[in-house]
Specification:
This protein has about 180 residues and is mainly β. The chain is about 0% helix and about 40% strand. A six-stranded mixed sheet has the order 1-9-8-11-6-13, with no helix packed on it. Strands 2-10-7-12-5 form a five-stranded antiparallel sheet, with no helix packed on it. It has a two-stranded antiparallel ribbon with strand order 3-4. The longest helix is centred in the first third of the chain and has 4 residues.
């Protein structure tokens, strides 16, 4: 399927025109090369718990720290699709639950066109997620949620690409509810 790239660039002049590649293969579910879900150890006692998320000397964090940000999302809010040409993101959800979707938009990647979906937050496996450059990412708050994220670059408008949330090549439905079983 060929995508008309001119239709994808948002009218906002301040956004970098990062788009779905014109020769993207049909979306398929699976893992995405370079995406890492790092399991976290939680130490619990009668006082509460302690959970270490990232150390500067972790292989997982080799690209390094530039900025730490906090985003609060109200129940039902979806934010998608964001994409960065060189920036790496690390996501952690301490409060609430996010449904996360990732799309591999890197034509050189062996997982090009793959879509990955998972949950972050309370009552989920405790993880920090590493999202490499060129992987489009979005999330939907299933409850009032807080996303803490580290980026390998400080804010730079040239790094802030957008793809429409309903882009047909990706084919992800942010309004879909849980699968009926």
């Amino acid at each position: 399927m060929s995508v008309n790239t001119e239709e994808l660039v948002r009218e906002e002049q301040h956004r970098a025109p990062l788009i779905v590649a014109p020769d993207a293969p049909p979306t398929k579910s699976g893992l995405i090369e370079g995406v890492v879900l790092k399991g976290l150890k939680t130490n619990v006692d009668e006082r509460g718990f302690f959970r270490e998320m990232i150390r500067f000397n972790d292989d997982f964090f080799e690209e390094g720290f530039s900025q730490l940000s906090h985003s609060q999302m109200y129940t039902g809010v979806a934010k998608a699709w964001h994409i960065h040409p060189t920036q790496v993101d690390w996501w952690y959800v301490p409060v609430g639950v996010l449904k996360v979707a990732l799309y591999d938009n890197r034509p050189y990647s062996p997982t090009y066109g793959n879509l990955m979906e998972f949950f972050l937050g309370e009552n989920q496996t405790s993880v920090v997620t590493k999202i490499p450059p060129g992987v489009a990412h979005g999330c939907k708050a299933l409850t009032l949620s807080h996303l803490i994220y580290v980026t390998s670059c400080t804010y730079n408008i040239e790094e802030e690409g957008r793809i429409p949330h309903d882009h047909p090549t990706i084919g992800y439905d942010w309004n879909a509810g849980p699968t009926i079983k």
